[in-house]
Amino acid sequence: MDTQQEVLLFVKAGDDGKRYGACPFCQRLFMILLAKSSLQQLQFKVATVNFAKPPEIFRKLTLRRVPALVHGETALDNVDEIIQYLDDTFQTPSLDYDDVDADKCCRDVFQKFCYYVKDVSKDPSQLDAELAKKSMRFWRQRTSHYLCGDQMTHLDFELLPKLHQIRVAANALKGYEISPKLRHLWGYIARAYNDDLFTQACPPDQEIIVHWAEKPETPNLTMEQKARLARELPKYSFDLPISSP
User: Fold this and answer.
1) Integer Cα distance of 63 and 143 in angstroms
2) Where, per UniProt, does this protein localize (predicted)?
3) pLDDT at 245 over 60
4) Residue 131 DSSP SS3
5) I need a surface site. Which of 6, 54, 202, 236 has the fewest CB within 10 A?
6) Distances in Å between the alpha carbon of 107 and those of 4, 158, 212?
7) How far is the C-alpha of 5 from the C-alpha of 56, rounded, in Å?
8) Roughly how many angstroms between the first and final C-alpha of the chain, as a whole number?
9) What is the pTM of this model?
């Protein structure tokens, strides 16, 4: 495989069928490519896919979902397979980690968010408890910038997009706010907001809101609300609560 060939990452298109959409798995792979390209001659391009009218190369390669990756003769549309391929083909920097406690820390929180935002659970107490548990039991004990050290690893690329979508979507659709008292959790999020790997790959708030509003059982948006979001300039909630670090 000629590693100098350009990598093409297909991601979800936004509400207008063209802009960058708000799939957390797409952001995860976008961040990995940014990290891999920072230390070696990896060139990549990101293209959006509107499934009503997918790009010709996407159809020709019989890709079925996003995120999807094309590199030379390789075409993949399974997230785990894409990550393994990138690690095998572009080994620097290594994004691997070996931290059982950190791995446990990433479990459950997104599931609790999905239950809450989809109205499976109308009470946010389980989500509150899961976020508080992670803040107190894990980040309070860490001196590193990220979950497994001072540089992001695969675990951060998995968790941070989800945390950000919890913040934006739960607030817009359910009026939920991550407590500013969770200072250690907010400190972790703040470091991501100051890292180009996160901000360059982050979709705008409007797309995150629409992405979740269109899910089954979630509070939907009126046509007027969707039209207003479409007219707005892209917004990114990278601010912090006043009492957080």
Assistant:
1) 42
2) Membrane
3) no
4) helix
5) 6
6) 36, 11, 20
7) 19
8) 45
9) 0.93
User: What is d(CA 161, CA 87) in angstroms, rounded to the nearest whole number?
Assistant: 20
The 8 Å CB, 24+ separation contacts for 112-121 are 113/162, 113/165, 113/166, 113/170, 116/170, 116/174, 116/176, 117/169, 117/170, 117/173, 117/174, 117/212, 117/215, 117/218, 118/215, 118/216, 118/217, 118/218, 119/217, 119/218, 119/219, 120/217
The answer to whether 131 and 178 are in contact (CB under 8 A) is: yes
CA nearest neighbour of 99 among 173, 22, 156, 183:
156
CB 112, CB 127: distance < 8 Å: yes
User: What is the maximal distance between C-alpha atoms in the chain?
Assistant: 52
Residue 10: φ, ψ to 5°: -95, 130
* Cβ–Cβ under 8 Å, residues 10 and 98: no
User: DSSP character for 6?
Assistant: P
Which tokens hold the place of 133?
């548990």
pLDDT for 47-85, tens place per residue?
999 999 999 999 999 999 999 999 999 999 999 999 999
- What is the 8-class DSSP label of residue 202? P
